[in-house]
Write a structure and sequence with these properties.
single chain; Porin; eight-stranded antiparallel barrel; two-stranded antiparallel sheet; 3 helices
């Protein structure tokens, strides 16, 4: 009996406390789940609002193309066999135009591209004065020759892009045409420079071991000289990027695979070869024909809309 009375008393004392807690729970508002807030947005929202939504941007290189103009200087050299002592010549006014197309190598490596162009450049040779023998060697009567060349290069390009800069590496082939030639003679050979005939003559006792230069070949190619040229070209550089403008600074080496003349031009028994090589230093300005990197504003708005509506 006593136990029953204790249990009844405890229940009576605890009943008001449970009732008070129940009332308090009913009085507090229940927060709405966060996901349901998106359903209160209208079906369409303004572009101004979407522009304020923060979307994480990534620096992504697009497949893009550009057109550029080049200007530079050229150091002229020629490798002779048999070896003759030569010096580098210098010619400004190397210029041209290029089209560059960037794409992803194997579909996912965004560092590859092709470049094709048309250039006005130079080739040539210049012999050094021999102080011991006190004369300057000549080739076909000339101590120096400079050729104007029309060139079409086709290069593969690797490019590593940063936000406002890029590093470049080019390598490829070129085809060219030797358009004009200008031969000159050093002062120590002016007395022996010109032959009275139009045809080339080999060495004579009066001219020592050197050659005559026919007067009408100062600005004209001999029949045994090659006009078409081809070879290897490549180099390195870096660029500054101010979308849609890019400014590139490049240095390139060009090696001809076509000799200046036929190997047997002087003797059918002893062949001679002469392969031009150039060092070109140039600056170029490029205009991007398509977008270089990232997403367009319309793409960002589309992404922002998906973020707002919970699709991403």
């Amino acid at each position: 009996m006593r136990r029953f009375l204790y249990i009844t008393a405890l229940l009576l004392l605890a009943a008001p406390m449970f009732a008070q807690q129940k009332v308090q729970l009913k009085a507090e508002p229940v927060p709405e789940p966060p996901d349901t807030l998106f359903f209160s947005l209208p079906d369409s929202i303004s572009n101004e609002y979407l522009d304020t939504v923060k979307v994480r941007k990534k620096f992504i290189i697009n497949d893009y193309s550009m057109i550029g103009v080049h200007y530079g200087v050229t150091l002229l050299g020629t490798s002779f066999n048999p070896v003759w002592d030569t010096a580098l010549g210098f010619k400004p006014n190397t210029f041209g135009i290029t089209y560059t197309l960037y794409g992803k190598m194997f579909g996912f490596i965004p560092y590859f591209g092709f470049q094709i162009g048309a250039f006005h450049t130079y080739e040539g040779y210049k012999f050094k004065y021999d102080k011991e023998k006190e004369y300057t060697r000549t080739l076909m009567g000339a101590t120096q020759a400079v050729m104007e060349v029309l060139e079409i290069p086709f290069l593969a390009q690797l490019h590593f892009d940063f936000n406002r800069a890029k590093i470049l590496a080019n390598v490829g082939l070129y085809a060219a045409y030797r358009w004009k030639i200008r031969r000159t003679v050093a002062d120590d050979w002016m007395n022996y420079a010109f032959d009275v005939t139009d045809a080339y003559k080999p060495a004579t006792p009066e001219a020592g071991t050197h050659d005559f230069l026919a007067s009408n070949y100062l600005n004209k190619f001999y029949p045994f000289e090659y006009r078409f040229d081809y070879g290897l070209k490549g180099g390195l550089g870096f660029g500054l990027v101010f979308d849609p403008i890019e400014i590139h600074f490049t240095g390139q080496v060009q090696w001809s695979w076509q000799s200046l003349y036929k190997a047997d031009w002087y003797s059918p028994y002893y062949y001679r070869y002469a392969y031009p090589f150039n060092v070109e230093i140039a600056v170029s300005v490029h205009y991007q024909l398509t977008k270089r990197s990232g997403r367009t504003r319309a793409d960002l708005r589309h992404t922002a809309k998906r973020v707002v509506y919970g699709d991403e």
